[in-house]
């Protein structure tokens, strides 16, 4: 087996998205790792190959990552998956009831701002 150093590629890590183990590289954002694994996370402003900035907030998820002692700690708030880098052992949930409701609220606010501007 070759290492990332020998091949020039980053070493692979494993994260869990919606209960599915996903092997990815540490240079990716959560939305990229999910997409590569065939897991859909909704988004409006994300575009592969461009620097993400999390403006639309549609790709929010809940996530937790292990600390140095191996205890899982939640990431603060509901991070945008397009701006959240993967971390070894990270656990991500993309479609909990809370996240779906949050996305509905985001869409409602977006819709209202468009209607107000028109």
TrEMBL record:
Keyword set, alphabetical order: Iron, Iron-sulfur, Metal-binding
Residue stretches making up the 2Fe-2S ferredoxin-type domain: 11-98
Keyword Iron-sulfur tagged: yes
Top-level taxonomic group: Eukaryota
Listed Gene3D superfamilies: 3.10.20.740
The keyword Hydrolase is annotated on this UniProt entry: no
Pfam families per UniProt: Fer2_4 (PF13510)
Record InterPro entries: 2Fe-2S_ferredoxin-like_sf, 2Fe-2S_ferredoxin-type, NADH_UbQ_OxRdtase_75kDa_su_CS
GO cellular component: membrane
BP terms from Gene Ontology: ATP synthesis coupled electron transport
One function term, GO molecular function aspect: NADH dehydrogenase (ubiquinone) activity
Protein name per Swiss-Prot or TrEMBL: NADPH-Fe(3+) oxidoreductase subunit alpha
């Amino acid at each position: 087996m070759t290492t990332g150093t020998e091949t020039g590629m980053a070493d692979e890590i494993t994260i869990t998205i919606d209960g599915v183990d996903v092997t990815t590289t540490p240079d990716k954002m959560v939305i990229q790792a999910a997409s590569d694994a065939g897991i859909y996370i909704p988004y409006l402003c994300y575009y592969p190959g461009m620097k993400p900035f999390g403006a639309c907030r549609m790709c929010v998820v809940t996530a937790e990552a292990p600390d140095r002692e191996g205890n899982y700690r939640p990431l603060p708030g509901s991070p945008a998956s397009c701006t959240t880098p993967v971390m070894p052992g990270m656990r991500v949930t993309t479609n909990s009831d809370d996240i779906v409701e949050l996305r509905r609220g985001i869409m409602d606010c977006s819709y209202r701002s468009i209607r107000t501007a028109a």
